[in-house]
């Protein structure tokens, strides 16, 4: 592994390109530890600060994760967020054994807290109104991949299992339907990007300047009343959104909404 001192590309970017290629090639498997910064500096013939800049860049990209006192490790492959939140309900509204095998959800908190602005907007209430929240962290292997929270009106869940710190053996929405007697019939997803809060960065083990993808999920009953407003944050560089859909065919006899384009 070498760098070209005469190249226009900065040394830390040259090193990043080589390490990135090796990770994609599988020379280092997910979870495998990289050589130490002094060892990499010796291999490339550069200062330790140059290698540190390389590591920082690859951490921002989501390829590496640093564990204090242990070293720097390959983070793993991207988590595909297929069909936004629809996967949580399933085609048959059943329990997802495959997802449960790959992802482990850890319940972190259950209690009443003032709601943030996006949750308040989802419920159509004022910011800061106390709501019941269930906060969780999702891991795959040793890597944290999601920080999330589900919010409910306290009056809706009072006296039910939803307000207790119980871990359920079925998806949360199924527990809510059984306890509240209200069926989830429609939902709305809103995805945005921002920098993480300090807590999110710590829980997801990412740098504070690594963007996160944020989902706001609003679930409604048959009367279009919000049952649950859920939030989720994922490390942006390690998350991809995938949406598959059919494109309607042109119906004969109907005018086209698009102007004709001359192709040369």
Task: Supply Rg.
Answer: 23 Å
So what's the oligomer here?
Answer: single chain
Q: Going across the biggest sheet, name each strand in turn.
A: 4-5-6-9-8-7
Shape: globular
The biggest beta sheet is recorded as: 6 strands, antiparallel
How confident is the prediction overall: mean pLDDT?
A: 86
Total strands: the figure is 10
- Percent of residues in beta strands? 25-35%
Describe the protein.
Helices cover 26% and strands 29% of the residues. With 264 residues, the protein is α+β, with helices and mostly antiparallel strands. The strands form three sheets. The chain has a six-stranded antiparallel sheet with strand order 4-5-6-9-8-7. The chain has a two-stranded antiparallel ribbon with strand order 1-2. Strands 3-10 form a two-stranded parallel ribbon. A hairpin with a 2-residue loop joins strand 5 and strand 6. The longest helix is centred in the first third of the chain and has 15 residues. It starts with 10 loop residues before the first helix and ends in a 22-residue tail after the last strand.
Main features:
264 residues; alpha+beta; six-stranded antiparallel beta sheet; two-stranded antiparallel sheet
Overview in brief:
By secondary structure, this protein is an alpha+beta fold. It contains 8 helices and 10 strands.
List the helices and strands and how they pair.
Blueprint: H1 11-25, H2 37-44, H3 48-60, E1 64-67, E2 71-74, E3 79-82, H4 97-102, E4 104-114, H5 117-123, E5 130-140, E6 143-152, H6 154-157, H7 172-180, E7 186-194, H8 198-204, E8 212-220, E9 226-235, E10 239-242
Parallel strand pairs: 3-10
Antiparallel strand pairs: 1-2, 4-5, 5-6, 6-9, 7-8, 8-9
Helix pairs in contact: 1-3, 2-3
């Amino acid at each position: 592994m070498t760098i070209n001192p005469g190249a226009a590309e900065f040394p830390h970017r040259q090193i990043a390109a080589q390490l990135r290629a090796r990770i994609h090639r599988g020379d280092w498997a997910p979870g495998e530890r990289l050589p130490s910064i002094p060892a990499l500096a010796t291999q490339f013939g550069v200062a330790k600060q140059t290698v540190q800049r390389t590591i920082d860049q690859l951490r921002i990209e989501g390829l590496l994760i640093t564990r204090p006192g242990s070293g720097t490790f390959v983070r793993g492959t991207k988590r595909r967020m297929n069909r936004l939140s629809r996967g949580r309900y399933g085609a048959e509204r059943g329990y997802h054994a495959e997802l449960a095998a790959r992802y482990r959800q850890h319940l972190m908190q259950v209690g009443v807290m003032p709601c943030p602005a996006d949750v308040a907007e989802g419920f159509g209430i004022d910011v800061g109104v106390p709501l019941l929240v269930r906060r969780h962290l999702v891991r795959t292997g040793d890597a944290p991949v999601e920080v999330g929270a589900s919010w409910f009106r306290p009056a809706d869940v009072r006296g039910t299992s939803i307000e207790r710190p119980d871990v359920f053996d079925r998806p949360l929405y199924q527990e809510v339907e059984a306890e509240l007697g209200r069926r989830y019939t429609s939902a709305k997803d809103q995805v945005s990007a921002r920098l993480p809060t300090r807590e999110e960065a710590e829980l997801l083990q990412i740098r504070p300047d690594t963007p996160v993808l944020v989902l706001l999920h609003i679930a409604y009953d048959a009367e279009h009343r919000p049952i649950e407003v859920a939030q989720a944050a994922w490390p942006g560089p390690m998350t991809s959104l995938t949406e598959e859909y059919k494109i309607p065919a042109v119906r004969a006899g109907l005018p086209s909404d698009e102007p004709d384009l001359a192709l040369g």
